[in-house]
Amino acid sequence: MLAKLIKGAAASATLALASALPAQAVDLQFYFPVAVGGGAAETIEALTNEYTADHPGVNIDAVYAGSYQDTITKVITAARGGNAPQLSVALAVDMFTLIDEDLILPFDDFIKTDEDRAWLNSFYPAFMENSQTGGKTYGIPFQRSTPVLYWNKAAFAEAGLDPETPPATWEEMVEMGKKLTKKDANGNVTQWGVRIPSSGFPYWLFQGLTTENDVILANADGNKTNFDDPKVVEALEYMVSLSKDHGVMEPGIVEWGATPKAFFEGQAAMMWTTTGNLTNVRKNAPFDFGVGMLPANKRRGAPTGGGNFYLFKGTSDEQLSQAVDFIKWITAPEQSAKWTMATGYVAPRPATWETETMKQYAKDFPPALIARDQLEFAVAELSTYQNQRITQIFNDALAAAITGQKDAATALAEAQAKADAILADYR
User: Where is the signal peptide, in residue numbers (predicted)?
Assistant: First the structure.
């Protein structure tokens, strides 16, 4: 009897010890890009560390992979070599490329409960347009954005304009831009009225103009573009006219990366750039500034932009389950609020904006609401199969028109023909 008791006690002790030990560690590799200023990389690392501190059995190697272009290149290279990360943030428009490469898994495979379904349906519809295709969800919105208009209130006041009222239409942007453009005694421009970057992501900011001109650049299936539509031609002619005819924007290619600095230094009184630059502008602009929706033409509108979370094939079931749990956690309202306040990216779920943290943030800093409110008029960012090739063709057409090598209609007709030749196989 004593022997049985001793044996039972030993078994209980062994069981207790086993239950006290952590489960086998789950290791995840997570690639992420940073395309804007501010504390984005530091915030990602802090959030990742917060998650792993609460989940002792999980190790997450958060790898800053450079720009969006650098990240997708590294992800594809690693996956082809059999070393894909378990999860990554990449551009939402890379969805078709990743599907074509057969590298990613739909999140639908991990939606088991009503709570899971509620989570998947909790994101802004405008952001889900670049996250779903063929009835499946391949991307979860995270660092999402729209382009917005920033203006220098001091420059407006100096030019005799109402510093609280930005241009609401294309015509007003030209009229105000003329008043805001300053020249020195020798006739050299010291301050341009407006700055719309045409490098880095030229198609994206230009899509602000096409959306406002009531035309969509590509279909939802990612296999047909509308580059030669007369409304697209008209939008490009307007963009060229800002320099060529109206003299309110610097001629030639306007650099994306240099635009915030040019704005801070008074070289441009207005700029178009991502809401992801909001925190950067708030910290570094030496003057009062405003943030507004992009000016309308036939309608209001802007493209969505930014990055989604993706899940990669070649990952164990345990890793995938943990990766999904991490994505649910980091997109939850409180974590999403921290990310939005640190970067300026648009919180991708309405629930985030209902937290006390975000309500106070919006009360203290109302410009944070502009990009969110602009989602009502937003459309999907240009995204197709062979996306990098297609957008490069389109970017080259824009550059040819902007630099005066070709007229807008010719440049866009040639781009459409090249895109058709590539996308025909996907129809």
Answer: 1-25
CA angle 38, 39, 40 (to 5 degrees): 100
Q: According to the model, what pLDDT value does residue 16 have? A: 40
Whether residues 136 and 218 share a domain: the answer is no
CA distances 120 to 111, 144, 328, Å, are 8, 16, 9
Q: What confidence tens digit (pLDDT) does each residue in 280-327 have?
A: 999 999 999 999 999 999 999 999 999 999 999 988 999 999 999 999
Q: Is residue 20 within 8 Å of residue 78, measured between CB atoms?
A: no
Is 215 in the same domain as 151? yes
Structure tokens at 297: 């033409």
Split into its structural domains, the chain has a count of: 2
The residue among 78, 70, 84, 80 whose CA lies nearest residue 32 is: 70
**Same domain for 403 and 415:** yes
d(CA 363, CA 135): 38
Between CA 199 and CA 208 the distance in angstroms is 15
Helix or strand (DSSP H, E) at 272? strand 270-274
Q: What is the CATH number of the domain that holds 409?
A: 3.40.190.10
> Coil, strand or helix: which one is 239?
helix
